[in-house]
Design a protein that fits this description.
It contains six helices and four strands; from the N terminus they run H-H-E-H-E-H-E-H-E-H. By secondary structure, it is an alpha/beta fold. A four-stranded parallel β-sheet has the order 1-2-3-4.
């Protein structure tokens, strides 16, 4: 009798998922896409008082090919949207997006023809962080929710 007959079905894949997701959740490399006042709150979240690094997000990546989570902070103009889409397409799988603030999520108070009324019309958003601008604690809460999503992800179902 071999080892494979003693282990339950899917045991190795399940354990590999747990290990891979644990390492992903604790070593995310965010790519900031800050365009307005929400970017100021993003910077303060990364500073020593709130220290987003304690959640494994110490290294900001300004190269889309080396990041796995994009934080869109602030309003996005229609002319800027192709740039955002291009950056999103250059990020390797698996990738996640955090929509930070009312402007990135719904357009905020700027209901004009020049601004996108929610980035989810163009790229998939994993977590929304509400506020105008959201406080650092709200962003940290959003990143912790993203970590919970990553923890439940499965490697075997990715294409």
């Amino acid at each position: 009798m071999g080892l494979e007959s003693k282990l339950p079905s899917g045991f190795m894949t399940t354990q590999a998922d747990k290990l891979i997701n644990w390492s992903r959740k604790n070593s995310m490399w965010p790519m900031p896409f800050g365009t307005a006042c929400c970017a100021i709150e993003l910077m303060s979240t990364l500073a020593s008082r709130y220290d987003l690094a304690r959640f494994g997000m110490e290294r900001l990546s300004f190269s889309p090919r080396q990041s796995d989570v994009m934080i869109v902070a602030g309003r996005v103009a229609i002319k800027m949207m192709p740039v955002l889409i291009r950056i999103w397409q250059q990020m390797p799988e698996p990738k996640w997006c955090v929509s930070m603030g009312a402007c990135a999520s719904t357009g905020g108070v700027f209901n004009t023809y020049t601004l996108i009324q929610g980035i989810d019309q163009f790229i998939p958003v994993s977590v929304y962080v509400p506020g105008c601008p959201p406080c650092p604690e709200a962003l940290i809460d959003g990143m912790m929710k993203l970590q919970k999503l990553v923890e439940k992800d499965s490697v075997k179902y990715r294409s």
